[in-house]
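Can anyone check this?
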Amino acid sequence: MRGTSRAALQAAEDRFAPVLRAAGTQARTLGEELFALVDALDASGSLRRTLADPSNGADARSALAGRLLGGADARTVEIVQALVRSRWSADDDLTEAVERLGFLAVLHSAEAEGALATVEEELFTVVRALAGQRDLRRSLLDPAYPAQARGQLAEGLLGGGGTPVTRTIVRRAAVAPRGRQFVVTLQHVGDLVAEMRNRQVATVVTAAPLSVGQRERLTDLVGRALGRAVQLNVVVDPHVVGGLRVQAGPDVIDATVLARLADARRQLAG
């Protein structure tokens, strides 16, 4: 998103975070209603343009959103009307904003149940299970494969378990990929969980399993490198070059950086 859209999205998140927290477990319903709107916007370019075009007037756009969501929860209507009143750099940015708030809504319902950390771990477990499963990943994205069948396939990755919120997220990622790979969507939602917990997700690919002590030391070192607390997800891959690879969002932290941090820490301790 460009500057105008980023500002509009941030304002919407700041405004509705208290609303979503107050909604408790009902926030999941708000999220599902927002996902339904995303589907409608993806299906109709004219609707997207009408709701995002500033020349139509904020009141007119808000009224149209109200009519469109006539049977939805009043809180969903309030969220969407505020979104369409904002200015967006591109009409697709409005759709992305609605989707992001939809994911945040279902995650707030998990938080209300005390299950946010569980959802984070379950999403990572699914991502890890798909490593090396190229055909399965392709099936989850294949438009020739019926959407509902993709959804069932995605839920099957949880082996009949998983929290209701995790099942909602993995199903959504498969049914409405929106041009993204299934794993990319799950990683995106994992980042949202980390933001809610004021932590950044860092994925460590290592040639051998880490001990509890090694994991704790690495978490500390990566946090120092990033300048904030981190949630460390560890993937064991014996083929990784150099024995260790750390990625946080688009950033890859070279093992030599961590080594220098460790050396500096030892010198300070001495």
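Reply from J.R.: I decoded it. The beta strands are 200-206, 230-236, 244-248, 251-253.
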